[in-house]
């Protein structure tokens, strides 16, 4: 699929904040975004609870290494398991804790 992008310095993508001291912010237009990619971006926007524009900026920052490591999305699950959930998980994964004797000979 062919992608086209243009940068227009006369518009702002977002307002600079105290954390972003840039004097100018560029506008980026992306054309011919495949439907599946657009759906994935919409899901990510919803997961983050932000605008599509902000989600794309954050994804680009993360992917380009400007904001530390990219999240695997598991942080939102932290602290949500019940004792029963943990018990079922440990029961289901117990076999992975045992060494495979055939592999260790």
Which key features would you list for this structure?
elongated, 3 helices, two-stranded antiparallel sheet, alpha+beta, 105 residues
Shape: elongated
Distance between the termini: 50 Å
Proportion of helical residues: 25-40%
The overall number of domains is: 1
In N-to-C order, the SSE pattern is EEHHH
Number of strands: 2
Annotation field: number of helices: 3
Low-confidence stretches: 1-16
Share of β-strand residues: 5-15%
* Rounded radius of gyration (Å): 21 Å
Strand order of the largest sheet: 1-2
Biggest sheet details: 2 strands, antiparallel
The overall average pLDDT, rounded, is: 78
**Class from helix and strand fractions:** alpha+beta
Please tell me about this protein's structure.
The protein has 105 residues and is an alpha+beta fold. It has one domain. It is built from three helices and two strands. It has a two-stranded antiparallel sheet with strand order 1-2. Helix 1 crosses helix 2. The protein is elongated, with a radius of gyration of 21 Å. It starts with a strand and ends in a 12-residue tail after the last helix.
